[in-house]
Amino acid sequence: MGHPQVVRVGNNTSATLILNTGPPQGCVLSPLLYSLFTHDCTARHDSNTIIKFAGVTTVVGLITDNDETAYREEVRDLAVWCQDNNLSLNVIKTKEMIVDYRKKRTEHAPILIDGAAVEQVESFKFLGVHITNKLTWSKHTKTVVKYTCCI
Predict the structure, then answer these.
(1) Number of helices and strands (H, E) in the chain?
(2) Domain check: are 79 and 100 in the same one?
(3) Are 14 and 66 contained in the same domain?
């Protein structure tokens, strides 16, 4: 492969770096290649779903009776799959959001990937949509309204 990459910010340009893996960023084939490459990355447990789109992989797990075993195994299996397939998980960009409607919520121990704790968040942006742990539209609506006011 060996395609060059540079970053330009204003009048500044970084040194050229030669990339030896993957398609160039922004390539029209990138989403298709990602889908083909990750096709065999599937959920092992029926209570979990793995969503993959345009370079983003998400594990959604249903935890019942406070048994997080299947969910935690799924995350661990995903980390192993990535390692086996020469993909790296960016733990800093990885987030965990817990949606819990019970009146008496329990604390959840953080998920660990390569010994690093995954940050638990109350909301995050997923494929352009702001999702909250209350599953309300208020944060997304405020963001869209704020954006449209600036146009």
Answers:
(1) 3, 12
(2) yes
(3) no
Per residue in 18-61, pLDDT (tens digit) is 887 777 777 788 888 888 889 999 999 999 999 988 778 899 99
Distance between CA 14 and CA 8 in Å, rounded? Answer: 7
Query: Alpha-carbon distance 73 to 112, whole Å?
Result: 11
* pTM, rounded to two decimals: 0.75
Instruction: Flag whether 33 is in a domain.
Output: no
Q: Compute the distance between CA of residue 124 and CA of residue 97 in angstroms, rounded to an integer.
A: 8
Structure tokens of 133?
A: 């742990």
**In which residue are the tokens 């922004």 written?**
26
Q: Which residues constitute the domain of residue 120?
A: 38-149
DSSP 8-state assignment for residue 20: -
Q: What whole-number distance in Å separates Cα of residue 31 and Cα of residue 93?
A: 19
Residue 81 pLDDT exceeds 90: yes
**Do residues 122 and 48 share a domain?**
yes
Same domain, 96 and 118: yes
In this structure, are strands 129-132 and 123-126 parallel, antiparallel, or unpaired?
A: antiparallel
Amino acid at the residue 38: T
